[in-house]
Structure prediction request, 189 residues.
Amino acid sequence: INCSTLVVVAKPWPLNLSEDVATYPSGNHVLYCSSKLMQELLFKTFAASKNISLSQIRFSALYGETMNWSGLICNLIDQARKYKKISLKNASKVSADFLHVDDASKIIAATLNKSLEGIINGASGKETSILKLAEIIAGQFDEAVEIENNEDDNFSEDRAVVSVGRLKQIIDTDKFLDLQIGIQKMMKS
Prediction:
């Protein structure tokens, strides 16, 4: 099993992002994306040359209380704690598919147990706008947290609607941790 990332697919992603979409990353994260795609290609080449079964799990936006405190979710929690205000831009036009690290572990175990080969989208299959994420975080506080979202009419949507059809062959994604509960766990740790 090789753990990769969905960012190997160039943005904006097509809606219902499947495993067979062309991968040619570009943009601000091209070096990271390219390094992950190179990793996938190296594993694929080696596995084919040695006749080894290979699963390449492309994870979505991983989060969890055991991870380093960084990234979007942590930034929004920090804003809410420090300023009682979350400042966003185009948050209703940008979404992600958040996957708790515990569910990522379950995906790896299921992939081992069921021998699903090839590329697998490791995602929840649930699109969450950044604005909705901010609302979930703000709702965790006893005191009011203001959400300020400035929308740019010229900004193109950047959505994450990830297909988990292949994944559902080996695991019930409906049993994955609800984002609100995952955020609660993060904020308690």
